[in-house]
Write a structure and sequence with these properties.
Layout: E1 2-7, E2 27-28, E3 31-32, H1 33-43, E4 48-53, H2 58-64, H3 68-76, H4 80-91, E5 94-99, H5 110-115, E6 125-129, E7 132-135, H6 140-151, E8 155-161, E9 171-175, E10 183-188, E11 199-207, H7 228-236, E12 241-245, E13 249-252, H8 256-268, H9 271-283
Parallel strand pairs: 1-4, 1-6, 4-5, 8-12
Antiparallel strand pairs: 2-3, 6-11, 7-13, 8-11, 9-10
């Protein structure tokens, strides 16, 4: 199975930093967000990875490419641990970069169409958005793949619960009557008090090729964008789509504030950082 990571957006919420640097390269505790995604796929057994990018993503390509000059410097200066880490980056997976053509509409489903020629015909694939961050004992891709192997549905999507007052921010899942995990539809950002549940879509999926039968670049939705939620709705109307709760801490990292929160959560799990970070946070004058 191949994995697709989508980083083809403009990253407008991170401007001006994202003008020159893809937001997925902004680090969380010293590691670019995109590296966490690649490592989660590799840890789940997926080593053939397609990263869909727009122009200006050369920094991502360089991050995963060999760097002989840097390696030579690290070896000469005796920095063996760093040398091994740099070499590991370029060897951990078979990564190809695919440019999303301007002929496709903007939206989080267009990268699937851009990557389609690189997929193996007839095989399922993993699909993930670039700005969701998880802290979990079992990698999210592995959790979804286990469900796919068990049920063999047309698709599996990740879901987590949010407080009722936050349902207006997400695509909320409506389950088929009599089930607790079969998707009927996704209600995008429902009005207060109208959400079918407080289970919301998270940007991780396992798809069979059937998704391409309902994913049409001419069927754009809100804002003129091509939304994966719309395609999943159409798929759920004709086939089984499993909505799988994810075990772990879900942290959206698509804007500076949430990225900062994700960084703090990740740092608190680092033994070498936790004690000093906690002491620092407690020392801050947080009164009004």
């Amino acid at each position: 199975m191949k994995g697709i990571i989508t980083i083809a957006g403009y990253g407008t919420r991170f401007l001006p930093a994202s003008k020159a640097l893809p937001k997925e390269m902004i680090p969380i505790v010293g590691i670019p967000l995109i590296q966490y995604h690649v490592e989660s796929l590799v840890a789940s057994g997926i080593t053939d990875i397609i990263i869909v990018v727009r122009n200006g993503a050369e920094a991502v390509e360089r991050h995963f490419a060999p760097d002989p000059a840097l390696e030579q410097y690290l070896e000469a200066t005796g920095k063996q641990t760093l040398l091994e880490e740099v070499r590991r980056l370029s060897r951990m997976a078979n990564i190809v970069f695919v440019r999303q053509p301007e002929t496709l509409p903007y939206g989080n489903a267009s990268p699937a169409l851009a990557a389609r020629p690189w997929l193996t015909p007839g095989e399922p694939f993993y699909y993930m958005f670039g700005d969701d961050f998880f802290l979990s004992d079992v990698p999210v891709p592995k959790q979804l793949l286990q469900v796919y192997e068990r049920y063999r549905p047309a698709a599996v999507l990740a879901t987590q619960q949010v407080p009722d007052e936050e349902t207006v921010l997400y695509g909320c899942i409506e389950f088929r009557p009599g089930t607790t995990n079969v998707l009927a539809r996704i209600v995008e950002k429902p009005e207060p008090g109208t959400a079918p549940s407080n289970w919301v879509q998270v940007g991780h999926f396992v798809f069979t090729p059937e998704i391409f039968e309902v994913l049409d670049p001419r069927q754009t939705g809100k804002g003129g964008e091509l939304w994966m939620a719309d395609a999943v709705d159409r798929l759920a109307a004709r086939a089984t789509v499993i909505a799988q709760p994810i075990e772990g801490l879900w942290l959206a990292a698509g804007d500076p504030l949430h990225h900062l929160k994700a960084s703090i959560q990740a740092a608190l799990r680092q033994k070498g950082m936790r004690e000093e970070l906690v002491a620092y946070l407690r020392s801050l004058p947080l009164g009004e």
